[in-house]
Amino acid sequence: MGEASGKMNNYDVVIVGAGPAGLAASIEAAGAGARVLLIDENNKPGGQLFKQIHKFFGSREHKAGTRGINIGTELLDDTEKLNIEVMLNTEVCGLTPDKKIWIIENKEISREITAGKIIIATGAYENSVQFDGWELPGVMGAGAAQTMINLNRVLPGHKVLMLGSGNVGVIVSYQLMQAGAEVAAIVEAAPTLGGYGVHTAKVARAGVPFYTSHTIKRAHGKNRVERVEIVQLDSNWKEIEGTEKIFDADTICLAVGLTPMVELIWLAGCKFTFIGSMGGYVPVHDRYMRTTVDGIYVAGDVAGIEEASTAMEEGRLAGISVAYDLNLIDDAQAEKRIEEIWTKLDSLRCGQFGEKRKTAKDRILEEGEGMILCHA
Amino acid sequence: MSCLKKCGAPSIEELRASPGFPTEEDYKTGNIAVIECIEQIPCNPCETSCPRGAINVGNPITNLPTIDLSKCTGCGICVVKCPGIAIHLMDINYNEDSAMITIPYEYLPLPQANDTVTLVDRMGKEVCEGKVEKILSSKAYDLTKLIKVSFDKKYYEEIISIKRI
Ligand SMILES: Cc1cc2nc3c(=O)[nH]c(=O)nc-3n(C[C@H](O)[C@H](O)[C@H](O)COP(=O)(O)OP(=O)(O)OC[C@H]3O[C@@H](n4cnc5c(N)ncnc54)[C@H](O)[C@@H]3O)c2cc1C
């Protein structure tokens, strides 16, 4: 992988975030001949992919049945073949609508680069909830626990209570058990479980109890979490007194949703819309992943929380439209690829879980329609 | 209220109502794949991995899988490929008294052949003991192991896995 020369200051395309969305975007844009710089604040590219040690869902085209970590490796191989320049340990701290980008390398060197086009693929951050004792050591995001076990090989604790039964909560519970921890319970405030049934079933058969309509009341402990008190909720989400239960646990993982990391997109002056099911404020964009600011594109979780499979497809869309907008590929080529990718995206956004995401994406696109100039 | 969405695991009634789950007659036909996939999710590696074309998901990809048991040889490829760890093999006539289950297993440590292990039901409740007959691994399984365990055949509809060791 090419190291940043430190001298270059101007690129056809700068991509912020080297997760599945950013990597896929870079492959499409560089494949069409653009000079691409990919920036990530981490010391390794791949975003969330390298901690997804489980086999992915989907179809063959989406590499279903392959572990996330191996999908990441395949993407990295492609970026290497295309000699894409990757700048790691580099944080993008700001950008302007005229596409000046402020970066800080290795937490030391501050400089400015400019780009013809910018694709923002910064992903998302984990939500938190407050309860008595939430500041005790041992309370952490489920994603953080996943990073600890699967990337850093450190067990955050021996007995974990998971709050949230969505896919992240149940997958991380399974992986914590694989890493050698015990999961005391999975607690869900809603009356029904959120994650795919196959995921809940595999932790249920490992003996993990689920508590729906329950939440954490407080964490007890002197210097760290030692016990967790949960309580039942009524249909108005009010705590029902007298239903408290106490579990021994040294770790509480919070899997209570993700929020798109949109700060850079606000700075650029893009229009937003609020869609709760997509994680909150998301940038308005069109089917080519263009925002309302000319030359700024988005892809992946930052454009609405979904999955790695959709993030990669959106990254490809952004990469292709950038190449098209730079006149590197013609109309017919671009439209053909864009259509193919949309067919795949539609197949990922169907069924009882995907339908909701499709409706939400349609809303974002509808808002985009009126605001974004059409392809010339 | 659905058991799957409340306690995490499907009830036997929910399973029987799904198209991939065998009938009592089906179980008698030999070592067969038992598919416990009752929710429409966009996923089809079971279909694309089956070397006999016995499993069908089709279009849209959210359809529940169906299986033509006359084509199923009990090879176990779908068992390792299913990202949901939702398929196992069951042979209720392994011998006169025992059935044999083949489960996908992704925990460490692994049991050894001939070990006595505890078998559990879908809620993780211990049901009976069994004997590890064989452990299969292959590069194509991508780290997942297949563990074959024999046990008292009267529990065949309850047993889903082994207790972690
Ligand atoms: C527990 C869990 C299980 C999952 N399982 C699946 C699954 O089975 N199948 C599936 O399809 N998806 C799954 N996902 C979802 C999937 O991981 C994400 O949807 C996907 O990673 C989003 O890709 P992305 O490229 O948009 O963002 P990310 O992967 O989050 O990448 C964003 C990158 O941007 C970088 N970045 C952010 N801000 C800056 C900045 N200012 N400067 C420089 N760099 C920056 C970050 O360091 C990061 O590398 C799972 C997620 C979790 C948490």
TrEMBL record, chain B:
Pfam families: Fer4_6. InterPro entries: 4Fe4S_Fe-S-bd, 4Fe4S_Fe_S_CS. It comes from the Bacteria. Residues 63-92 form the 4Fe-4S ferredoxin-type domain. Gene3D superfamilies: 3.30.70.20. Keywords: Iron, Iron-sulfur, Metal-binding. GO terms for molecular function: iron-sulfur cluster binding; metal ion binding. This is 4Fe-4S binding protein. It comes from Sedimentibacter hydroxybenzoicus DSM 7310.
